[in-house]
Design goal:
transmembrane helix, Growth Hormone, Chain: A, 2 domains, Efflux pump antibiotic resistance protein, single chain, 19 helices, 473 residues, mainly alpha
Length: 473
Amino acid sequence: MKSKHNILTLFATSFMSFMQLLDASIVNVAIPSLTKDLHVPMNRAEWIVSVYLIMICMLLLFWGRMADQIGYIKIFQTGTIFFTIGSLICAMSPSLYILLFGRIVQGLGASMSMATNIGIIAMIFPMSQRGRAYGINSIIAQLGNISGPGLGGLVLSVLSWHWIFIINIPIGIIVYIYGRFMFPRENRRVKKVSYDWIGLITYAVAIATFFVSIFMGQDIGFGNRAVILTFMVSLIFWIGFFYAEKHIKSPLINFKIFKISRLTLSLVSALIVFSIGYYANVIMPFYLTNFRSLSTSLTGLIMMAIPFANVIAAPIAGYFTDKYNAASVSIVNLFIYAIPIVFLMQVSKTDSLIVFTFMLLFLGIGNGGFQNNPMIMGYAPQAYQGIAGSLAALFRNLGMGIGVSMATTSLYYGMSLKANKQIAYYPTAHPNWFLSGMHFAYLTALVLLIIAIVLVYMIHRIDKHNAVTRKYR
């Protein structure tokens, strides 16, 4: 395949990642409009966000396993069709239940595309160019993840919520048509496809009940009996999943992959960094719109500083990754990430919006420069490229879900400490309670960031040790 076709294929797969991650975050901003138009309470409308993430996390490993057997491109293209159809259903939904069905179809398609897009990149680019290719993919995907609230605020200031789904449709059609004619031909990898149904069912129930327990805990409290029971069900199915996978001939995921220490550390550090990134999606709209009394459109413009910086940082970091290594580049950018987090731990109402926006630029640089895909895919053997790609997407989406939970839980806890009572809403009459909660939330983000830095430093040390060993071998 010619180089220009490689680049076009990279952009085609990456833009699907953009739209799918955008849909995971942009809907948060549309919840007030959705509750009004569909005449549903806020807690029910939140399922529009959560059912999409749950569906993706439930099926990512399955499609990664299937991709290793029947090919990345077939599954990616099928996922593009389902995601586009799901977007059409969402855009035309007259009721909550049809909208939820559309989100389920979207989630099915997104899980197929997310599980395979990194594998496609690994297939078409030589090792010497993968750092930059992964960097471009990461920047476009991260843009979808980070720009959701900002872009959503701008769209909703002039258009209805239907447009956050309508925009997916032409992009999905274009990507599918391009892939139909331009993606490389891919032969079936095995004669007989093996299905690990026990693994799929136990894992799907485990992940679904895990997320349901988180969202229920946000709504009715984590000490509630129903929440504890749901979490226990999740734990039981997790145990069943791990037991089944160790005794099945062709498991959903071969746990031997986690014996590759650098790969495991890369996955965990990526989960943490994505969790931290979601703090901004959750907290910034409250700070700018409610606490600082800014318009939705201005809030959107300010928050666009994060994806703007991400656009600049990711390809530059990708270039240095090809020249040096992903772990070294990531450590530098994680320290840059710490600067705005420390600032947000002590931000006040009197701080200049210019300074605040400048700090959001640093958030985008730190996040965009973190080289999770090159680390994950670079440490995965060729036979595990498909499952490694799906694990990368899984840990990214788990990070998003956990980030929402961590950000809101720490925010509410910090506000409750200040108020000396339980607070689980924006305290309109006491805005300083919110500010205290925000400071506490970003304190927890700093702790998570320190853990991520330690993990990536461990990867760097292993890289260095292996380089020395090869030199004197």
